[in-house]
Every structure is written in structure tokens, then in C-alpha cells.
Amino acid sequence: MKYNRLGNTGIKVSQLCLGTMTFGAEADEKECSKIYAAAKDKGINIFDCANLYAGGNSEKILGKLIKSHREEVVLTTKAYFPVDSYAGGGAISWGRGLNRTHLIRALDDSLKRLNTDYIDIYYMHRFDDDCSLEESLSTLNDFVHQGKINYIGLSNFAAWQYMKAVGITKMHNYAPIACIQPMYNLLKRQCESEILPMAISENVGVFSYSPLAGGVLTGKYVTKNKDKVDGRLNEMEMYKVRYGAKHIDNIAENFVNFANKNGFDPISLAIAWTLHHPAISAPIIGGRSAEQLKASLNAVDIEMSIELREKISNLSNAPETATDRSEETTS
Ligand SMILES: NC(=O)c1ccc[n+]([C@@H]2O[C@H](COP(=O)([O-])OP(=O)(O)OC[C@H]3O[C@@H](n4cnc5c(N)ncnc54)[C@H](OP(=O)(O)O)[C@@H]3O)[C@@H](O)[C@H]2O)c1
Q1: What is the residue range of 11's domain?
Q2: Counting C-beta atoms within 10 Å of the first and last residue's C-beta, which end of the chain has fewer, N or C?
Q3: Is 218 a pocket residue for ligand 1 (Cβ < 6 Å)?
Q4: The pTM is what?
């Protein structure tokens, strides 16, 4: 496992991050401790969580797992969505989102569930159309100065939203944004057009999620009976919609054939492909069991040449460039 400096921060993170979205949901507490141990043994030092996951249970389980060695791990969590414990939940304006009232409440609840007095990276889980970024960022800046969080992250933000946030932090001398968290895999490549070039230009860290496209790139749905396969696509409507298009089946099948023909486990190869984009700090991997996670952890052992990455990239369409006239040379 390699460790790289995270963007402009002074911390080093492993080249894989363990996601805990399945903790307390598909994985019970006993399985979570096996997943956690496997990740830690492989050298992972950064763990991705959110207050939303399993209605707060993911944070509770992760909090127990890190307790004996809190200082050794980079702990992250997120806020935006309402969690069950709030009276009124999403029905009242401050029961969700990035407004000051909700962020204060959400962070205090996360600290309690994680049983810690600080979060290393605190993410806004998504952009909030109903709240100014000034309000959210001034609140997060207060959290940094109170010692409750060390770094600020943004997840699912468009490039313009990120740059707007950067402008606000610079104008008011607020704590800077350390990292972003977009979706990225061979089937969902939108972030290649604006977000990843921006991240390189700004030297901001990038933790990309869903490197296996929610399980599609494992190849398990490449079968006539895909509706019968055990997995998220048949359990969660959102994922069926996200990855349900016919062209996605074709790309997944071609990718799995390519991996097998060239002697790679498709799971390890799909993750290695995201990992070796120059903007990526670490893909966030995850699974419902330690057994599932094995092949994902092996992604760091694949030597990814520029040629191999290009061959894999050619199996799906790159997104349109962000601006026209990209064929012109400027030199
Ligand atoms: N910021 C955000 O909005 C956001 C959104 C999503 C995720 N995340 C973070 O990113 C992490 C990873 O995301 P993800 O779970 O979508 O990643 P992913 O790598 O795309 O999908 C992981 C899923 O693939 C399936 N899988 C993995 N290995 C397998 C194997 N060996 N055999 C069969 N199936 C296998 C499992 O799902 P099934 O068994 O159910 O098929 C597993 O849960 C999450 O834990 C979370 O921390 C963040």
C-alpha cells in the first residue's frame, strides 16, 4: 500500500479508502469487524462514513472499531440528509441540508455516535439549493476553529459549485477545502470532463466512490438471469435506475471479457483503473463481507501501465469535453 499526501493538506492517506455504507445494513456488526480488519491489515488508514448510513448505525459500528487506535486513522463522515433521530426529520427546514442549525446538530450527533471528539474530514454530502454556501462554509469554519473537525470536504458538488466554495473560503479567510468526493467508474465518467481536471489544477484531494458501479463491474450481472442475482441492483431501485440501461450491460460484459482474457480479476482491475487516474487520491471501496472485499483490496497489486489504462478506457465512452473547440492547439 502506498501513502500519498492529500492535496494541499499535511496528512498522508492510503491509496484505497474503505467505505462503510454497508455497515449495520447489509453487513452485521460481526462481519463489519472482519471487513475492517481486512482493510486495516492491507494498510488502509482512511475510512469513509456518513451520518445517513444505516440510519446512524454505520457511525456507531465504525466508532467502536477505531476506538483503540483513534489517532492512527483518518476518519470521515458527512452531513446533509436527515437521520431518523431528528424530530421532524426532513419535514422541517432545519431538519436537513447545510444550514447552520442542521450542521451543528448533525455534527454533534455524529461525534456522539462515532464516540470521538473530532472528525478528520467532514463532508457536505451534496449541494444544498436552499442554503447559501456562505452560511454552510462559515459554520464549517467555526467547527475547524472549535477543534471538532480538521478538514472540510465536498461530495457530489459540480465543478462550478466547488470553485464557488473556494472563492468564498478565500474571500473570508475560512479553512480551505481539502478534498472532494465524486462518483467515478468505467460506466460513470462524467467527472472526467470538469471535476477531475479541476482537482488537478487546484491540487485538491479526490476520493471517488462506487468504483465497481455498485457491483456491476464485478460481472455478476452478466448473465441471462440477472434479475435473480443477489446484489444491490435487485435490492435497491435507485441502483437499478442508475445502471439499468442496455448499453451498460454491454460495456460491463466487454470489460469482464477483457479482464478475464488478460488474466485479471475484473473487480481488482476496475478499481485499479479508477485508482490510476492522476487526479484520484483513493477510490472508496466497500462490500457486504470480508470475502467480497478481497478482490477489491488486491487492486493495489496491479501494475497499471498507461497503455493498459487506455485500453480499458476505450471500452466505454469518455464524456464530452467541457468546452468546444478542444481540437485546436494553442501552442
Ligand atoms: N458520497 C456519496 O454520495 C457516496 C455514494 C455511494 C457510496 N459512497 C461511499 O463509497 C463507498 C463505496 O461505494 P459503493 O459501495 O457504491 O462501491 P462499489 O465498489 O461500486 O460497490 C460495492 C458493492 O459491489 C458488490 N461487490 C463488491 N465486491 C463483490 C464481490 N467480490 N462479489 C460480488 N459483489 C461484490 C457489493 O454489493 P452487493 O453485494 O450489494 O451487490 C458491494 O457492496 C461506500 O461504502 C461509501 O462509503 C459515497
Answers
A1: 3-212+275-298
A2: C
A3: yes
A4: 0.97
